[in-house]
């Protein structure tokens, strides 16, 4: 069964750092672009960023640019999100998602269950 | 950034009804649009991609249409398990954005 499992969410103080992990199973992780998407409590979905198959191509949202680093370890079938200088508005459930391409269009065809990050003093 | 306007924000319907949710984009995105369903406390699930292609395993009562700037998700013969939130998402350019969501309620 294809699966993504996130971990690392926690309560952290404003200005703090956190590293989220996502472990993939059931598919060839190294052949897929991957993404992080977050959802603040009771709110909609917000794209955080993408990373390509070898980790050398990345994009991120302006709201997190300069504060987050997306990386991956294909040998460990794992995706990471390093978050620094955390703010209250970063409080959200963070989802790991697999990207599927159709010609030039792409979408998220597999999602993890999410991990909760709470930024509060 | 491309703005996504999804409507309505909430919708009341009954089992057996047919409902339509609309997503309008601030500029043309060809057919680079996907639809997701999210149930409370769960991760989103892909329903439709490339505006009208049904994801494997999704019931055929779900359908998508549109191109350019106007898109619709139609759910025919609503089932109890369809009462959930629905989101559209474009992939035309970075940053990708989602619609604000439609909550489908009984």
Task: Tell me what the structure shows.
The complex is a heterodimer of chains A (121) and B (106). In chain A, the strands form two sheets. In chain A, strands 2, 4, 5, 6, 9, 10 and 11 form a seven-stranded mixed sheet that branches. By secondary structure, chain A is mainly β. Chain A is globular. The model of chain A has no long low-confidence stretch (mean pLDDT 96). Helix content of chain A is 0%, strand content 55%. Chain A is built from no helices and eleven strands. In chain B, the strands form two sheets. A six-stranded mixed sheet of chain B has the order 2-10-9-4-5-6, with no helix packed on it. Chain B has strands at 4-7, 10-12, 19-25, 33-38, 45-49, 53-54, 62-67, 70-75, 85-90, 102-105. In chain B, strand 4 and strand 5 (45-49) form a beta hairpin. With 106 residues, chain B is mainly β. Chain B starts with a strand and ends with a strand. Chain B is 0% helix and 46% strand. Chain B contains no helices and ten strands. The chains are: A mainly beta (121), B mainly beta (106). The A-B interface holds A 44-47, 59, 61-62, 95, 100, 102-109, 111-114 and B 30-34, 36, 42-46, 49-50, 53, 55, 87, 89, 91, 94-101.
């Amino acid at each position: 069964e294809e699966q993504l499992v996130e971990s690392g969410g926690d309560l952290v103080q404003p200005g703090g750092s956190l590293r989220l992990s996502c472990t993939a199973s059931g598919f060839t992780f190294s052949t897929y672009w991957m993404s992080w998407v977050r959802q603040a409590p009771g709110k909609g979905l917000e794209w955080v960023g993408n990373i390509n198959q070898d980790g050398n191509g990345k994009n991120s949202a302006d709201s997190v640019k300069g504060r987050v680093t997306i990386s991956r370890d294909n040998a460990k079938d794992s995706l990471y999100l390093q978050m620094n200088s955390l703010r209250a508005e970063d409080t959200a459930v963070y989802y790991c998602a697999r990207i599927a391409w159709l010609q030039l269009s792409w979408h998220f065809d597999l999602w993890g269950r999410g991990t909760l990050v709470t930024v509060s003093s | 950034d491309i703005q996504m306007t999804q409507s309505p924000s909430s919708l009341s319907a009954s089992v057996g009804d047919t409902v339509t949710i609309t997503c309008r984009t601030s500029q043309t995105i060809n057919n680079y649009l996907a639809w997701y369903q999210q149930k409370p406390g769960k991760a989103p699930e892909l329903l439709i991609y490339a505006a009208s292609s049904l994801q494997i395993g999704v019931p055929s009562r779900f359908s998508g249409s549109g191109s350019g700037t106007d898109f619709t998700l139609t759910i025919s013969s609503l089932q109890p398990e369809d009462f959930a939130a629905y989101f559209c998402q474009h992939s035309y350019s970075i940053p990708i954005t989602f619609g604000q969501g439609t909550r489908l309620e009984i």
